Amino acid sequence: MSVATAPPGPRCLLPGYHLFAFRRDPLRFLTELARTYGDVAQFSVGPQRVILFNHPELIKEVLVTRHDYFMKGRALQRAKLLLGEGLLTSEGEFHRRQRRLIQPAFHRQRIAAYADVMADRAAEMAHRWRDGETVDIAREMMRLTLAVVGKTLFDADVESDADDVGRSLAELMDLFELLMMPYSELIERFLIPSRRKFERARAKLDSIIYRIIEERRRSGEDRGDLLSMLLLARDTDGDQGGMNDEQVRDEAMTLFLAGHETTANALAWTWYLLAQHPEVEARLHREVDALLGERLPRFADVPSLVYTEMVFAEAMRLYPPAWVIGRLAARPVEIGGYLVPAGSLVLVSQYVMHRDARYFPEPERFDPERWRPENKQARPQYAYFPFGGGPRRCIGEAFAWLEGIIVLATMARRWRMRLVPGQKIEPLPRITLRPKHGILMRLERREPTA
């Protein structure tokens, strides 16, 4: 390895200051770090050295070119408490085998079948809304994507179970934040009531999922849902085997979490941005009205919903559901001329990179025109990476794009959203980038124009 230097970064004048500043406002902390020190910067959180890379080529180095130097960061290692050895948390050859087994569930033919579920569930919710009603659109989108993933993952015969899963999962997510805190391994002994509540909620989820798995194994039926794919999958490139019940449980839990939490947040932020940009909203309505009229969108319509996709892409630029990716250096590696010692935590942040003025002029402005083909081609690949990259790129990316476009088109046929005045809207960067206090919207019914 060539001689490499340590990255620049702020000195820690008070013990624990960087930890405090990062925990208080991680989005601001990382943004200011990149603005002050450039493409590579480091800071310390207790004994942990943390290095932020904020350049498309360096992000590609971490996620793609030199990915084998890294393993999942602490946050996702701790996530095994909930997700077990699912795709988000597993490593090495086991991860590669699981990905081979799951990949067919996201082939084009399967994804196409899910489009009808997405449109139908969105239409059902839109039908229940009332003109002039005030709703928390973040909560509504969470309910909607939960219904979608309940149908596509578990099929309609267990939708009531999917509701129970959703409630338990929401409870687990709140408790999980405590278990993700720095040094939580040491302080867990003082969080005994919270830990017990976490374990009870997880046990309820497990009992539901394992029962569904047992029933489906007995029937041997392929119902076209993701659970059927997990149970029927065989590793044709490896040992020809399938998954045991524990592996199916871990992947089902992972897909359930990733399949509704992230997309719900992306949709909520999209409605928030549209409500503040009536000219963008009007153009979205024109596209939807011209293509669909009175009918629901289907899979074949998606390539024609060009502006709808541009709107969704721009919303995920400003408010990426996955706002940061962490990797632990398993051994020393040089990235961009800087030494990353073994044990260092490396961060690449979608939130910070997506607001870099070098690649997105006037980065705070909501402008779907950035996503015209010629504008996309002018930017480096990893200036925009809402679904990660490399071998661990989100396996459900096509599912998420489809759901975002279908839901926007379905609901925009009938409704406008108007922000309720006086509320404080701010992002809460936890596992995903949520609206901290929700987003209250007043619903205005509209009729498609010819």
Output the keywords.
450 residues; alpha+beta; Cytochrome p450; 5-stranded mixed sheet; 3-stranded antiparallel sheet; 52% helix; 11% strand
What distance lies between the first and last C-alpha atoms, to the nearest angstrom? 65 Å
Give the CATH class.
Answer: Mainly Alpha
* Structure class: alpha+beta
Biggest sheet architecture:
5 strands, mixed
Known CATH architecture: Orthogonal Bundle
The residue fraction in helices comes out at 40-55%
Radius of gyration: 22 Å
Unreliable stretches (pLDDT < 50, length at least 5) are: none
Compute the number of helices: 18
Cross-sheet strand order for the largest sheet: 1-2-8-5-3
Overall 3D geometry?
Answer: globular
CATH superfamily: Cytochrome P450
- Domain count: the total is 1
CATH topology grouping = Cytochrome p450
